[in-house]
Amino acid sequence: MNIHEYQAKEILNGFGIPIPRSRVALTADQVERAAKEMGGHCVIKAQIYAGGRGKAGGVKVVHHPEQANDVAKELFGKKLVTIQTGPEGLKVRRILIEEAVEIAREFYVSITLDRESSRYCLIASAEGGVEIEEVARKSPEKIHMLTIDPFTGLRPYQARKIALALGLTGVVCEDCVELLLNLYKCCLERDCFLVEINPLVVTKAGWLLAMDAKMSFDDNAVYRHREYPDMVDYSQLDPLEITAGKYDLAYIKLSGSIGCMVNGAGLAMATLDVLKEFGGEPANFLDVGGGATREKVAEAFKIILEDSDVKAVFVNIFGGIMRCDVIAQGIIEAASEVKCILPIVVRMDGSHVEEGKKLLQESGLNVQIGETLGDGAGKIVKMLGQGGN
Ligand code: GDP
Ligand code: MN
């Protein structure tokens, strides 16, 4: 679960991490007034659920309130395309106005969950800023990493080692130690999946400041934080992903034309692989879960069909906990409700499979049965081809 930069900064500030003076605005007029408050010279930052804004024109330094207004007018409503958004971009609806700071040095620091070690990992580099991906690619030795033992937590000596590796000395070094310890505390208490400060800067006046912040929460821990769902800016999410979230379906839109409905993440991955092997391009990843009900299957089917890129549907379900005939009913129900005329291939196996297949064959839908995963994938690609797509 993601939140905006300004929200992340507020949270970090609550843990004693210094951030620049700022305001959030929803209109160009508000941006202008905020810029006036900052003394005219300030930074205008588009708030979207993606990084790489600096290089895409989403972060601009201005010198007068009127100039802030002009920049804001240009940004509001614009779909900002950055290296992290994909070609469709993300719409700017909120802008953060920050006091401009004279930067002496830019660092990178983050803490993220490392799935391999199942631990938090602290990552830092003296060469932070907008080129961090380049640094990681070209000179990985400049990136310092530390796996944090959950029993001892991050120890001050470890944080100091990192701060020294960043080339910091004296008071700023000690400030950085404290900042790293607070960053770790924030991660633990807020159940973060990622907290990233890039750049963490030392200003010309010698202060440490979190100039940018990115925070995402561990979805599995959201239930522990009642305020989290209200922090989400739904306008930044794909509407179908929001609906899927409501029904507890794991849905991710992809760029192809074959809608996929599968139960179990592993089976879903295998399905996408096999589809590709047969020359098909999946339109989405959709996992209805192990114990999917008829209603859930019907909702999932509707979500797939709402995507206008979908030209054919491939269902691959293993009826273990769930009976195949009940799943078939869910598919038939949803398909008739939305008057689906697209080709459908259903590959199912497990309990009551014969009853399920019979229901589908007698349903009057444009449906074929796949006997195996390969057979199903082959059939859907063929049906799609015959449809002239
Ligand atoms: P990102 O590209 O989405 O990560 O956006 P950032 O918030 O990191 O901004 C991009 C770059 O803009 C930073 O790396 C800084 O170099 C620069 N920047 C951001 N705020 C300020 C500021 O107050 N003063 C100056 N001089 N530069 C800034
Ligand atoms: Mn940044």
TrEMBL record:
Pfam families on file: ATP-grasp_2, Ligase_CoA
Keywords of this entry: ATP-binding, Ligase, Magnesium, Metal-binding, Nucleotide-binding, Tricarboxylic acid cycle
Pathway(s) where this gene product acts: Carbohydrate metabolism; tricarboxylic acid cycle; succinate from succinyl-CoA (ligase route): step 1/1
HAMAP family the record matches: Succ_CoA_beta (MF_00558)
Annotated function: Succinyl-CoA synthetase functions in the citric acid cycle (TCA), coupling the hydrolysis of succinyl-CoA to the synthesis of either ATP or GTP and thus represents the only step of substrate-level phosphorylation in the TCA. The beta subunit provides nucleotide specificity of the enzyme and binds the substrate succinate, while the binding sites for coenzyme A and phosphate are found in the alpha subunit.
Residues noted as binding substrate in the record, renumbered to the chain: 263, 320-322
Enzyme Commission designation: 6.2.1.5
Residues reported in the UniProt entry to bind Mg(2+): 198, 212
The ATP-grasp domain, residue ranges: 9-226
Protein name, as recorded: Succinate--CoA ligase [ADP-forming] subunit beta
Entry-linked InterPro entries: ATP-grasp (IPR011761), ATP-grasp_succ-CoA_synth-type (IPR013650), ATP_grasp_subdomain_1 (IPR013815), Succ-CoA_synthase_bsu_CS (IPR017866), SUCC_ACL_C (IPR005811), Succ_CoA_ligase-like_bsu (IPR005809), Succinyl-CoA_synth-like (IPR016102)
Organism: Pelotalea chapellei
GO MF annotation list: succinate-CoA ligase (ADP-forming) activity
Catalyzed reactions per annotation: succinate + ATP + CoA = succinyl-CoA + ADP + phosphate; GTP + succinate + CoA = succinyl-CoA + GDP + phosphate
Cofactor binding note: Binds 1 Mg(2+) ion per subunit.
Superkingdom: Bacteria
